[in-house]
Amino acid sequence: MRRAAWACLLVCAASAHAEDGYDLWLRYRPIEAPWAVRYRSFATEVVAAPGASIAVQELTRGAAGLLSVAPSMARRVTRDGAILLRTPGFSGDLGAPLGDLKTLGPEGYLIRSIQVHGHRATLIAANSNLGVLYGAFAFLRLMQTRQPLEALNLQESPRIRHRLLNHWDNLDGTIERGYAGASIWDWQTLPDYLEPRYADYARACASIGINGAVLNNVNADAISLTKQYLEKAAALARVFRPYGLKVYLSARFTAPIEIGGLRSADPADEAVRAWWRNKVDEIYRVIPDFGGFLVKANSEGQPGPQDYGRSHADGANMLAAALAPHAGMVMWRAFVYSAHQNEDRTRQAYDEFVPLDGQFDSNVLLQVKNGPVDFQPREPGHPLFGAMPKTPLMLEVQITKEYLGFATHLVYLGPLYEEALRFDTHRKGAGPSIARAIDGMAGVSNIGAMRNWTGSQFDQANWYVFGRLAWNPELSSRVIAEEWVRMTFSNDSRFVAPAVAMMMDSREAAVDYMTPLGLAHLMAAGHHYGPGPWQGGGARTDWTPPYYHRADDDGIGADRSTSGSDAVSQYAQPLAAQFNDPKLTPEKYLLWFHHLSWDYTMASGRTLWDELVIHYSRGVEYVGEMRRTWATLAPYVDSERYAETSAFLAIQKKEARWWRDACVAYFQSWSKRPLPEGVAPPEHTLEEYEAISTPYAPGNPGWTAAPFRH
C-alpha cells in the first residue's frame, strides 16, 4: 500500500508540473543558476502595507517558483534585498516622495531601487493596492525575462482607462466564436461552487492589466439579468474583486418585456425607464462594484431603440441614466446592420452614428470595431475614430480568431492590433492615431474550458498582447512577443529569436493565404471556417463573399471611391484623397477601395492577377517555413506543447493550401488568365472545392454540439 501510495504521489506531482499550458505566462519555473543567484539577493523579505495580501501572495509564489526561496515577512526592512510594498495610506515611511505618486493615477505603480535604514531594497509603490499588485507582476516579469534588477526606476500607468474582455459565452455553456471548448463559467454550479480556475483567470488578467470582463454574449439572453443569474455573477465578482477585475453584463434591450412583464421596451416610456432603474439598483445591491452594460442593438436581428422610432443615443442614454448614480457605464456597440441592405455596408456605422455625436451621455462609450466590416484579417481603420470628438469611443478587437483560422492556425495578432492602434485618422492634421482617440479597449475573448485556456499554446499570446497593448498602446508588438515567449517557453536565445520571428510574420502570412491585397470576407458562410468566395444567396447579400470581392470578367475589388459607394469620403483628408486614387492607395488596402482590371499594373510591374496568385502562394510557403522553424526548436520545448504545436502547424499548412487553391481556382474562373510561370495549379477542381461542406465547424452561433469541459 505504501509503495502504491508513493507511486501515486509521484504521478500526481509530475502531472501537477506537466507543461499543458494551464500556467500561461505565469509558469514561474526555476531560473538557471547564474540569474537565480543574482535575483535571490533582491527577494530576501517582503515588507507590505495592509491590504496588499494579493501582491504578497504573488511575490512569494513567484520567488518560490523562480528562485526556490521563501522571502520572510517583515514589518520593517531588516536586511538587504527587501521588497517594500507601499501605498499613501500607510502610516510609516512611503519610501518615495508623495509627489512621485500623484501622476500615476489609481492603477499606476513605480518600482525603484532605494536605501532603507542602510539596507538595499526595491520599492513597489502605488496609490492603491491594485497598483501595487500590477507593480508586483511587473517586478516578477523582469525576472521571468531575465532583466537586471539593479538601479531600477520604472514608472507605469495605463494609457487607456477601460481594458475589458468581452466573453461571447452563452448560458448553456457554448461560446459564440469560441474554439477552446465550453465556457469557463459553469452557470449550473454557480454560485455554490467556485472553480479554482476563476481565480486563476482573474490573476492572469491582472498580470497584464485587464480590469474588466463582460461575462455573457452580446447576443444576450434576458435571463442573465434575473435574480438567479445575478447571484451567479455576484459570486464571480467576489472572486475577481481582489484582482481589480470588474464584472459587466451584456443587456438585452427587450429585457423589460421578456423578464419584466412590460409590453414595451421603448426608451421614452417612463415605465420602461423605471424598470431599468430598479433593475440596476438590484444589480448594485449584489455587485457593489458592477461595471455596467454592454449592448448590441438593432444589429443582426437584435432588438433596439430603432424598433420604437428612437435613436441609438436615446437607447444608450436610458441605460446610462439608470447606471449614473452608481458610477456605471454603458458600452454601446457601433456594429450595426440596418433592416434594409445598403449599397455598401462599410458605410453604415459612420452614417448612423456621426450625426449623433454629442448626444450621448458622458457615461456612454461607443464601442467601435477596429475596421468598418467585421474583424477581417486586414481592414483599414474604422472612419468613426476621430470623427466623433464629443463622444467617448472604445476600440473593439477580436482575440478569438473567427476569421483567422480558429485555434489551429498560428496567427499572432499583435501586429494587427498595433496596425489598428497606430492607424492615422488625420483628424486635426497628421498624427492623431486611433490609440489617441479612445477611452477604452475591448477584446472578444478566446478563453474556454480547455486546459490550455485558448485552444492552442500560441493563442495565449493573443490574450497576452491584448492586455499589454491595452495598458500601453505605444508598446511594440515584437517586444511583447519576446516577453511572452520568454515567460511561456524559454529564455534561450536559440529559441527566442526564431519563435518571435515566426510569430511576427504569421499574421501577414494568413492575410496572404486568405484575403490578400485588401480583399475581405471570403470565408465560408456562417461558421467562417475555410474559404467560400463563391457562396452567394441567402437572406442577406451583405453576409456573402461576392458582395465584398465583386469579382467579375473585368476585374476584382469593391469600388468605394467617389465614383463608387464613396466610402472614402468618410475619412479625413488627405486620407480620403489617398484612398480614392488606386495609385496612391497602399496595396494592402487596394481591393478594399477599388475595383480594378485583372491586368492592372502593380508596383512590382506584375499584373493584378499575377500579384494576387503570388500573394496566395507566398502565404502557403511561409506556413511551410514556420513548420520547418518549429521542427528545429524541439530541444527547447517540453514534449507535450511541442507535439501540439507541431500538429496544429500541419493542419495550418493543409488548410492554407486549401485556402490558396480554392480561391485561385475560383478567381481564375473569372479572370480567365493563366497562372504566373512556376506557380503550381490548384490540386482539385473548383467544383470539388465548392462541394466541401463543414456544417459542424465550431463557434457558429447556430452550432449546438454538446459543450465539453476538461
Helix content: 25-40%
* Strand percent estimate: 5-15%
Rounded to the nearest angstrom, the distance between the terminal CA atoms is 30 Å
Note poorly predicted spans: 1-17, 703-710
Overall spatial form? globular
Largest sheet: 8 strands, parallel, barrel
Let me know the number of strands. 16
3D architecture notes:
The chain is built from 21 helices and 16 strands. The chain is of the alpha/beta class and 710 residues long. The longest helix has 33 residues, at 639-671. The chain starts with a helix and ends in a 20-residue tail after the last helix.
Using brief descriptors, characterize the structure shown.
about 700 residues, alpha/beta, 21 helices, globular, disordered C terminus
Task: Briefly characterize the structure.
The chain is α/β, with parallel strands linked by helices. Helices cover 36% and strands 11% of the residues.
What's the arrangement of secondary structure elements?
Elements: H1 2-16, H2 33-40, E1 45-48, H3 53-67, E2 72-74, E3 82-86, H4 99-102, E4 109-116, E5 119-126, H5 129-144, E6 153-156, E7 162-166, H6 196-207, E8 212-214, H7 227-240, E9 246-250, H8 255-258, H9 270-286, E10 292-295, H10 312-323, E11 329-333, H11 348-353, E12 364-369, E13 393-398, H12 414-421, E14 440-444, H13 460-471, H14 477-488, H15 493-514, H16 545-549, E15 555-556, H17 575-580, H18 590-593, E16 596-597, H19 608-631, H20 639-671, H21 686-690
Parallel strand pairs: 1-2, 1-3, 3-5, 7-8, 7-14, 8-9, 9-10, 10-11, 11-12, 12-13, 13-14
Antiparallel strand pairs: 4-5, 4-6, 15-16
